Amino acid sequence: MKRILLSIALCGVLTTANTQSFQLVKNLYDQTESLLYDYDAGMTYFNGKLYFTSHYGDIVVSDGTSSGTQIVSNLGMTHMTALSFHKNRFVPMGNKLYYKNRRNELCVTDGTTNGTYVVADIHPTDSTNQYGVATIMGATSDKLFFAGNDGVNGFELWVSDGTANGTRMIKDFAPGLVGSFETSSRHHVGTIIDNKLYFFANDRTNGWEPWVSDGTEAGTFMLINSNPTGHCSDFMANSWGGYGASEMKFFSYKDAVYFIAYRGIYKTDGTTAGTTLELSG
Fold first, then answer.
1. Residue 170 has what pLDDT?
2. How far is 276 from 281, CA to CA, in rounded Å?
3. Segment 258-268, tens digit of pLDDT
4. Mode of pairing for the β-strands spanning 106-109 and 44-46
5. Which residues of the chain have pLDDT under 50?
6. How many Å apart are CA 246 and CA 188, to the nearest integer?
């Protein structure tokens, strides 16, 4: 029976640059189909180990040895597809990795079976898997930001300290079930700079515009309404599910943050007063 060659993919990552050959690390599944899709499977190298999700949605961790390669949870991420691989990723906070499982629950792993568990289920009555955590947008040393839907407020910005009691919605940008992110907001990611999350959102009043959050409601606000008559980017607004938002990035340079919005390149110090158009074009 043909062995699954996911472990060969592991070898390619874990062996040294001088190694010219591949070897099987471990045969996790004795079946004939491929264990990995062609996409990255959320592969993350963290604290000397490689973490990834298998074709079956299992969370696997490996240190490059057979004894150190194991399935730590069978309630992993969703199967990989071209449109879903952005949401299948691990995000480090502290000494642990956080991810959303296929039931859209916020989960954590420290690389052990006992240390892999559900942190919070923000919509426990959902049987359709259409709500809950949409995507993890980024993390500081002690705050994990994600887009989530509790079935009441639509997809909004949430924060977690890694505990159920410390997981909450930060701000209701767009009151009601519509939310500030599209239903396909799994594609939305943010940029962490100086312990703040910079991201794009749509409050249904000003369109897609740049925002910042320090994890509190008072510290979460729109930086600038770059286009008062529309969106900061037509590409962002017209792309599938606002997919363009994941392509709109923020960059730090010489104690300032830069981003592209309507009419050019903007500079910000993280405040509305300190957000200006630097280069028009």
1. 96
2. 14
3. 998 888 899 99
4. unpaired
5. 1-16, 38, 80-87, 185-186, 240-245
6. 5
Q: What single-letter DSSP state applies at residue 4? A: P
* Bridge partners for 279 per DSSP: 265
CA 163-169-171 angle, to 5 degrees, is 150
| CA–centroid distance for 37 within its chain | 19
Of the candidates 230, 226, 246, 143, which has an alpha carbon nearest to the alpha carbon of residue 185?
Answer: 246
**pLDDT at residue number 202:** 86
Tokens of 60: 């696997």
CA distances to 36, 258, 278 from 9, rounded to whole Å, are 9, 37, 45
pTM over 0.90: no
- Round to whole Å and give the CA distance between 234 and 180: 16
Instruction: Copy the structure tokens of residue 131.
Output: 């709500």
* Token couple for 104: 């859209």
pLDDT per position as a tens digit, 20-62: 567 778 877 776 555 555 455 678 899 999 998 877 778 889 9
Q: In what order do the strands lie in the sheet with 91-93?
A: 91-93, 96-100, 106-109, 117-120
Query: Strand locations in 111-241, DSSP E?
Result: 117-120, 132-139, 144-149, 155-160, 167-171, 191-193, 196-202, 208-213, 220-222
- What pLDDT sits at residue 59? 87
Token pair belonging to 81: 């597809």
